[in-house]
Amino acid sequence: MSGPLHPQISLYAAIATRSFRRYSTYTAATLAGIFTNSVFGIILSFAYLALWEQNPSAGGYEADQAVTFVWIGQALLMTVALWSGGSTDDLAERIRTGDIAVDLYRPVSVLGWYLAADLGRGLYHFTTRGVAPAIVGALLFGLVTPSPAGAAGFLVSVVLAVVVSFAVRFLFAASAFWLLDATGPRVLLSVLATFFSGLTLPLNLFPDGLRQVALALPFASYIQTPADIWLGRHTGLDMIAAIGLQVLWAVVLLATCALVLRAATRKVVVQGG
Amino acid sequence: MSLIEVRDLSREFTIRKRAGAFRRTSVVKHAVHDLSFDIEAGEMVGYIGPNGAGKSTTIKMLTGILGPSGGSALVAGLEPSRQRRELARRIGVVFGQRTSLWWDLPLRDSYELLRRIYRIPDQTFRRNLEDHVALLDLGDLMDTPVRQLSLGQRMRGDIAAALLHDPEILYLDEPTIGLDVVSKGRLREFLRALNHERGTTLMLTTHDLQDIEALCDRVIVIDHGTAVFDGPLPSLRANGDASRTLVVDLVDEASPIAIEGARVVKVEGPRQWLAFPAGASAAPLVAQVAAAYDVADLSIHEPDIEDVIRKLYAR
Ligand SMILES: Nc1ncnc2c1ncn2[C@@H]1O[C@H](COP(=O)(O)OP(=O)(O)OP(=O)(O)O)[C@@H](O)[C@H]1O
Ligand SMILES: [Mg+2]
Fold first, then answer.
1. From A266, which residue of chain B is nearest by alpha-carbon distance?
2. Are B60 and A270 an interchain contact pair (Cβ–Cβ within 8 Å)?
């Protein structure tokens, strides 16, 4: 990236805005998604309540915190595009069809482009498929609310969650440059993300050993870290450390993405005439 | 220095194939092989060849999205694959089979993004948008999402998009594919005007030879990755074993006409087709035929450009 900063920022802001707008044209899909997230949230909440009845303060969470964790998970599921739906899906598809050629000849960073698009998308999904089910959860179960510092930390952490998950998804999608089809890696990634993000179970409930590993992996940034900040489990310096780990992952992974992209474009074989 | 300089440019692809459960064999495919040509500023060059000849591969190398495996290319003094971003500001590309527009966005938004990507000065942007939108008849489509455009509309939208940043060179890879006759005509007119008024250098690949006849002063024919002809269109017609045809309608059916300087290529009842070299005169042949046979009618056919090219490919 070269040249003055201002036009760059204006470009990426424009990309993010267009991306936000693009997703907002699919209203029916959004409504269906909100419904699904809410249903899942309700089912999981009842399961958790039963679990916590057996085992109060499991993993250090009280029952109401555990239920709040569920709804944060549902709210962030789409925001971080945990299974699919991110700008990285477009990337994989464009590599497969060769349309990536069009992205490559533009005088703009491909990585920055897709990141900006994913952030715009993330914002859309957070404000719709994140907030709406959370309201349902709050009405039905009454959720734990954060301190002002916790709320601020949560928002920062969610932005980083999108960046980290973006970078991981980007790497898996870029495998299509070599494998031509990224379906296999994508399935693997969804499985990993489902278990290690905290979506199915808070990572603090994992057995010793596995827990420490899981908490150190980038997937913990997706849901576990923002949720723990919301719930006030990370405060003060501890919160800064938690966010710091997300930043570290974001930087390391984005740098890896840049390297992979460079290797790919050097040997790249753009598909199709 | 020419605007585009291609020297011994080559590109190989290694294609791996499964041969049995564990073994793999690999075949090297020479998509482009020792290709050389120069293109001067302001030229309109037709780049033609059969399917798989290496046209798209060449264009990809000239835009820098594909590195050569041998030889070199210089475009506007830049080495495409190393200076891809810098070059991108000076060239425009239209891939007929792909779109550079954003599927879910209205045309206007795509153009707005491109303005920022290429950092097009406001005045240039406004002027180009006005000009191209009017000439390409896009006015009513500006607020339509690209996915709702017809193929021809989308193609026009793509061409306007490729020209917003005033490129010196415009590469068009099959720009008329799938367009109806009227749209093709309009597009050709637009491209001609662009070349005449702005001096934009055009290089286009196509399978529609009428595109070439309507637009290009010069043709490069490529087959199996190598140039088999490079020159002006008229000399392509007169090239090598291109032949003219003398069509003879005899009064009665007869065995194939035997005269010097021509050979019968087809017989259909009393009508016979005689091929003779494009450079030779028809007069002595006509005289010979008329002297030896009862002739009802005679006509001479110029070599068909498609025939000429078919012969080139077949070599
Ligand atoms: N990514 C690739 N991997 C392997 N081989 C390839 C690849 N791209 C092109 N080729 C081969 O290189 C040759 C030239 O392909 P190219 O796309 O340049 O042809 P073309 O002249 O554009 O043909 P068409 O008129 O069909 O568009 C073909 O034989 C093709 O199979
Ligand atoms: Mg092609």
1. B67
2. yes
